[in-house]
Amino acid sequence: KGKGKGPQGKRITLKMAKNSIRVSFSGRRRLDLSKMGITTFPKCILELADVEELDLSRNMLKKIPNTIEKFQNLLWLDLHSNQLDELPKEIGTLQNLTFLNICNNKLTTESLPQELNLLKNLKTLNLGLNCLETVPTTFGTLRELVDLGLFDNALTTIPKSVKNLPKIEKMNVKRNPLRELEQPEEEIDTIKRIETLYLVEEKDLCSSCLKICKGERDELHKLEDMTPSSSKELSFPLLLTPNSSAKDNQEEWRVR
Q1: Given a cut of 60, is residue 89 above it in pLDDT?
Q2: H or E element at residue 84
Q3: Where are the domains of the chain?
Q4: Which keywords belong to this entry (predicted)?
């Protein structure tokens, strides 16, 4: 009963795991256990802890054990689309990691271990589709970060230490209630802009439409009266006269 998909999920044997190792063009060995229906971290894969890449994405994992520290050669770790609500602090010992994807889980800011800040070689960190309310300011120590995914969380601000990361090229913050994204909308001119203008003669309007139009026109005149305007009309007589001094040097200011 332990084998196959039961309440415990699929049981991974060492033989299955060995058969799931793929070698990339760059010669890295990837242990690919994605989409296997796994609910608990398979202990047997600790015997394959010398792989450079580990893919446990698209499973039903709720916990990653502290034994993850055995995978000291890891450069690439993909845990996206699981049920993770915490990460072990031992993840910070994987000092060679350049890629970490923990997108689409149930992580909160509190459940992110401080030890993530120790991953000094991280270039890609994906935390999208989680339950983060803030980004730790200490992420500012991840100086090699190039790509940071923070989309679909509950973030209201991004700390300056993270915005100012020296190598960051891509930061996806879409679908967050960010205050800095809302501000420009609030500052939009409150005067309604007319999209389309129709010109008609009074005789072509019925009495009720005419009344509405006149009411709108009166409102517009009131608005004009309230708007301060300069007392003098600006006038440039020299530009209109035949002997205009602007004529001689018009080639200089003509828009080419």
Answers
A1: yes
A2: none
A3: 32-172
A4: Leucine-rich repeat, Repeat
Tokens at 211, concatenated: 């009344």
Total H helices, total E strands in the chain: 6, 8
| Beta strand extents in the chain (DSSP E only) | 21-23, 29-32, 53-55, 76-78, 99-101, 124-126, 147-149, 170-172
Rounded distance, CA 57 to CA 13, Å?
Answer: 18
pTM attached to this predicted model: 0.69
Q: Which of 86, 81, 177, 102 is nearest to 134 (CA)?
A: 177
Radius of gyration of the chain (CA): 32
Strand partners, 126: 101, 149
Say which residues have a Cβ less than 8 Å from residue 4's Cβ, sequence separation at least 6. 10, 11
Query: Can you tell me the distance from the alpha carbon of 126 to that of 80, in angstroms, rounded to the nearest whole number?
Result: 9
The CATH code of domain 32-172 reads: 3.80.10.10
Q: pLDDT per residue over 99-116, tens digit each?
A: 999 999 999 999 999 999
User: Which tokens sit at 92?
Assistant: 């910070």
Range of weakest confidence among 16-25, 164-173, 233-242: 233-242
Q: What tokens does 167 get?
A: 């190598």
| Tally of residues, the chain | 256
Higher pLDDT, 244 or 74: 74
Question: Whole-angstrom Cα distance, residue 221 to residue 171?
Answer: 48
Amino acid at residue number 71? F
At a CB cut-off of 8 Å and minimum separation 6, what does 189 contact? Answer: none
Read off the pLDDT of each residue in 30-34 and give the average, rounded to a whole number: 97
CA nearest neighbour of 129 among 82, 61, 167, 184 = 82
